[in-house]
């Protein structure tokens, strides 16, 4: 401030006896928004969205993995970046065949994935192996997608193996896997395997994000023993009886006939595809080619009759609703005011002072009033 302006303040005139106006200090140049962002991102170890997207589109596995980590993160900032990456990758996704693979632990899923996976990559394909495993108790056998289970594929530059997102609600885990599919496809993976343990509800989630559903079974073990529900068999586009080797070959052939008969009892599929039963030995890599041929036939049939794309469209809207429901549920149960009230209302319901419906109504009203 120059002398002239100082004089302009009546407080600074010679006759003024009170407090004077001092010259202020100049402010440093404001830091540009970009530098602030870069600084903050560096601190959080984040990159600009464009870097992730460019990396994914050129097939950079490290950046793909980093983006998937953001998809899996519970941090809202990470989630926001992940959503931006997904939106930008979406136009480059979809060019793949998505295959769900299920079967009880021990049936040979990882051995099979390795055998079929190698068959695909040796034929020039690129394969991403993802998993849905919402169980929190992880025994050695159920660490789906664990690299140590698929050593050959893990060392294959045309394969990308990503273990299941860490335990959480099935809806949450499934959504993350669904989003990861988009990123993998944008990175050029034209074959996607989604592995799950065929004993719970996760196969419904897998079915809702795949084009083809493969059920692995064993010969000589009743359905009860294998824990496979009728509904899961009904979802299958192909049943493969694994471990058809050594002394097991005959038993596998018999099981093939039995399962074929069982499949005939199910209603005709909307896809017009008639599911079949094959035998294979994932360990000896026999029967693998035949299974792959079935998947290719399925793709040709359903692309020709329009089912392939109509199913994908339906799945896309299904996931929109699933995501809304999951988010609403999470917002509700994570709300601190609701957390307190829920306990109170639970007690009221337990003491028969309130009906479950009235309590739910009150809590929902409270939640919407909080907004
Ligand atoms: P997962 O739990 O379903 O992933 O099953 P794994 O792939 O880990 O296989 C379980 C066990 O069965 C392992 O000891 C495998 O070596 C064995 N196994 C897998 N496939 C075959 C097969 O085709 N034939 C035989 N004999 N054993 C197999």
Shape: globular
What's the domain count? 3
- Total helices: the number is 16
And the CATH topology of the largest domain? Rossmann fold
Bound molecules: guanosine-5'-diphosphate
Strand content: 5-15%
Structural class: alpha/beta
Topology as a string of helices (H) and strands (E): HHHHHEHEHEHEHEHHEHEHHHH
Pick out the low-confidence regions. Answer: 1-7, 136-143
Question: What is the topological layout?
Answer:
Blueprint: H1 3-8, H2 33-43, H3 49-57, H4 61-72, H5 76-89, E1 97-103, H6 109-122, E2 127-132, H7 151-154, E3 159-161, H8 170-186, E4 191-197, H9 202-207, E5 212-218, H10 223-226, H11 230-235, E6 238-242, H12 249-264, E7 276-279, H13 288-304, H14 307-334, H15 336-350, H16 356-370
Parallel strand pairs: 1-4, 1-5, 2-3, 2-4, 5-6, 6-7
Helix pairs in contact: 3-4, 3-5, 4-5, 4-8, 8-14, 15-16
This protein binds guanosine-5'-diphosphate (GDP).
Kindly summarize this structure in a few lines.
The chain has helices at 3-8, 33-43, 49-57, 61-72, 76-89, 109-122, 151-154, 170-186, 202-207, 223-226, 230-235, 249-264, 288-304, 307-334, 336-350, 356-370, and strands spanning 97-103, 127-132, 159-161, 191-197, 212-218, 238-242, 276-279. It is of the alpha/beta class and 371 residues long.
